[in-house]
Amino acid sequence: MPLVDPVTNSAGGDKTAEWQNKLVGKTLGDSHDEVNFAKKDLPKEHRVIEPGSMVTRDFKEDRLNVHVDDKGIVTHVNHG
């Protein structure tokens, strides 16, 4: 039986790629434009993770983790 890494091999892989394409390089704000993505349009199960943030290590397959840099720009996303 192959080993499964829940971060990279989760069932949300296609959803993760879709969100990655929508969010990376943008900031989160109140509306959509070329450099912003509206927070209200994120999935119900999400969390924004800033540098140095403490987060729980529980795995929720449908939760979108949005990682931002110190300027608030999305660097990557993953589900879990």
Brief summary of the model shown:
With 80 residues, the protein is α/β, with parallel strands linked by helices.
Overview of the structural elements:
The chain is of the alpha/beta class and 80 residues long. It has a single domain, classed as 2-Layer Sandwich (Trypsin Inhibitor V, Chain A). The protein is 14% helix and 26% strand. The protein has one helix and five strands. The chain has one helix at residues 13-23, and strands at 27-29, 36-38, 46-49, 64-68, 74-79. The strands form two sheets. The chain has a three-stranded mixed β-sheet with strand order 3-4-5, covered by helices on one side. Strands 1-2 form a two-stranded parallel ribbon. Strand 4 (64-68) and strand 5 form a beta hairpin. The longest helix is centred in the N-terminal third of the chain and has 11 residues, at 13-23. It is globular and about 35 Å long. Residues 1-11 have low confidence and may be disordered. Pfam families: Inhibitor_I78. InterPro entries: Prot_inh_I78 (IPR021719).
